[in-house]
Structure formats: structure tokens, C-alpha cells
Design a protein that fits this description.
Number of helices: 3
Helix content: 25-40%
Largest sheet: 5 strands, antiparallel
Number of strands: 5
Radius of gyration: 14 Å
Strand content: 25-35%
Distance between the termini: 22 Å
Shape: globular
Structural class: alpha+beta
Strand order of the largest sheet: 1-2-3-5-4
């Protein structure tokens, strides 16, 4: 399942809504759906802010036990997990991904750009 969106702030709610529908279709628990929606929002926000002006793609894939969401943009800057405290505004998105996802990572794309992905259990 693939969604292609413009690299602009107005696309973030569209990505959240789309991934919410896809994960509900998978029969995920409400808590897992909320986690996937939040983490997708963080990755798409990063792609809009730090990626490029080209389109962003969001992909949802599942197995019997997991759901993986991958966000691809044309930017080459890699995501950073910041260690700032809760009193510092902004910069907490990748820390949320690190804490709430079962696994996450980033891979470079041929011809430039990158894909940042995370996996969560279907239940939990």
C-alpha cells in the first residue's frame, strides 16, 4: 500500500489519516493504530522539514505479526535522535520513534534520497 504526497505541511494530516485507515484494515488494536499514526506523523513531518521539495511516499506493509511503515523523501540528511530534555521545544520526533517502535532504521535510495522506516507489532 503506497501513498504519494506533496512535500508540504498540509500533507501531514493526509498521511496520518491514510495510515490510520490502512492499519485499521489490518485489524490492529486501537493502541497500535494510534502508535503507528503518531510515528508516521513524525516521519512525514521530518521529511517535509528536512527532506526536499519533491514528493514524499508513505508505504505500509504487514506480516502476520508486524506492521512496517516507510517514508521516502529525496533529501540526504539522516534523522537524528536528540537527547534534549522534555523542557526543550521540538526535536522529539525521532526519540518517540526510537522508544515506541519495535525496530526502526534508515536506508539510502539509489539516485539519492532516503527511506526511514519503523516496525510495530500488530497487537500491543
Amino acid at each position: 500500500m503506497l501513498l504519494r504526497i506533496e512535500s508540504r505541511r498540509g500533507s501531514i494530516p493526509k498521511a496520518r489519516h491514510w495510515v490510520n485507515e490502512r492499519t485499521r484494515d489490518l485489524g490492529m488494536s486501537p493502541g497500535s493504530v494510534a502508535t503507528v499514526e503518531l510515528l508516521t506523523s513524525e516521519l512525514v513531518t521530518n521529511a517535509v522539514r528536512h527532506g526536499s521539495t519533491e514528493a514524499i511516499t508513505v508505504r505500509v506493509e504487514s506480516t502476520r505479526t508486524t506492521c512496517t511503515v516507510a517514508v521516502t523523501d529525496a533529501g540526504d540528511s539522516l534523522p537524528v535522535v536528540r537527547s534534549s530534555g522534555p523542557h526543550v521545544p521540538g526535536g522529539h520526533g525521532m526519540r518517540l520513534v526510537e522508544r515506541l517502535a519495535a525496530r526502526w532504521g534508515v536506508r539510502p535510495e539509489r539516485g539519492g534520497g532516503k527511506t526511514v522506516w519503523f516496525t510495530v507489532p500488530l497487537e500491543g
